[in-house]
């Protein structure tokens, strides 16, 4: 819709604006992340870890709404941290309108606000949920073609993960399978790293860990529809890397640097192979 507006309804220009929005989204994410760390004694160059996230480059070349929604995720976390309650609700509302999986982040913000007794924030978050609900109801009544069956994406807990490892172990030793295994393991380690950082700095990273918890539940119930191919799970769970990016790690062990260096290798391999 945004591309349509910017292109003044010209169909031939819409794809170019889609790519442009994605590229601009990356720059905005880097800028907001830099601001996020302004009150911490950590390197602000951590924001450049954005360029190491595999899903960023996959979405840039293949998708549309994912990076755009991640901008709203990063913005809502920034506003929440610096107690800008209205903007927090606005950005997460826009995020939910852009991509429905950001409802996970809305719940994370809601639960964190409840734990931290930010009742004013809860009120605004509830107001912010109204537009996505109305939009969903409207789209449902339109009965548009091409509906995705959500239940196909999920199944019994851990079954998708087990099947993924079985597929990796039985597919032989080849470049494609090794890359698939590498990307899957880096994602698993990212989930774990957020938890480890939270255990060492609970107060600073409560929001990230709650968000990580919700995404972990989604990951556990994911079927092979999502787990089957690195392009799918790297895109669906791209925001896990952003949660890791925003986690504040003041320990001597550079968990984030290690993980993002590993993911950066995966990103570089994807760019080389995909091109």
Plain-language structure description:
This protein is mainly alpha-helical. The chain has one domain (1-274). Helix content is 72%, strand content 0%. It contains 15 helices and no strands. Keywords: Membrane, Transmembrane, Transmembrane helix. It comes from Crocosphaera watsonii WH 0402. This is Glycosyltransferase RgtA/B/C/D-like domain-containing protein. The chain crosses the membrane at residues 13-36, 48-78, 90-112, 124-142, 154-174, 181-201, 213-232, 253-273.
The assigned structural class equals: mainly alpha
Mean pLDDT: 89
**Poorly predicted runs of 5 or more residues:** none
Helix and strand run: HHHHHHHHHHHHHHH
Question: In which range does the helix fraction lie?
Answer: over 70%
Q: How many distinct beta strands?
A: 0
Domain count, please report it.
1
How many strands, what sense, and barrel or not for the largest sheet? Answer: none
Shape: globular
Distance between the termini: 29 Å
Protein name: Glycosyltransferase RgtA/B/C/D-like domain-containing protein
Keywords: Membrane, Transmembrane, Transmembrane helix
Organism: Crocosphaera watsonii WH 0402
Transmembrane segments: 13-36, 48-78, 90-112, 124-142, 154-174, 181-201, 213-232, 253-273
């Amino acid at each position: 819709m945004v591309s349509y507006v910017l292109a003044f309804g010209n169909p031939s220009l819409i794809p170019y604006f889609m790519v442009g929005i994605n590229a601009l989204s990356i720059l905005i994410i880097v800028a907001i992340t830099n601001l996020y760390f302004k009150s911490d004694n950590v390197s602000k160059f951590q924001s450049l870890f954005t360029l190491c996230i595999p899903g960023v480059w996959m979405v840039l070349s293949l998708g549309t709404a994912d990076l755009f929604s991640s901008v709203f995720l990063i913005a809502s976390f920034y506003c929440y941290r610096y107690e800008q309650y209205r903007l927090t609700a606005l950005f997460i509302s826009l995020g939910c309108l852009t991509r429905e999986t950001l409802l996970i982040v809305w719940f994370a913000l809601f639960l964190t606000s409840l734990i931290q007794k930010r009742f004013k924030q809860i009120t605004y978050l509830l107001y912010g949920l109204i537009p996505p609900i109305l939009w969903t109801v409207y789209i449902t009544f339109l009965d548009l073609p091409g509906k995705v069956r959500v239940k196909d994406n999920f199944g019994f807990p851990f079954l998708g993960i087990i099947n993924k490892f079985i597929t990796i172990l039985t597919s032989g030793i080849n470049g494609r399978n090794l890359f698939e295994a590498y990307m899957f393991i880096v994602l698993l380690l990212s989930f774990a790293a957020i938890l480890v950082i939270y255990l060492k700095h609970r107060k600073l990273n409560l929001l990230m860990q709650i968000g990580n918890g919700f995404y972990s539940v989604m990951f556990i119930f994911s079927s092979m529809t999502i787990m089957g191919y690195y392009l799918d799970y790297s895109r669906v769970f791209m925001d896990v890397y952003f949660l890791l990016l925003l986690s504040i790690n003041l320990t001597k062990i550079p968990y984030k640097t290690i993980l993002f260096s590993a993911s950066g290798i995966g990103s570089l391999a994807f760019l080389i192979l995909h091109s």
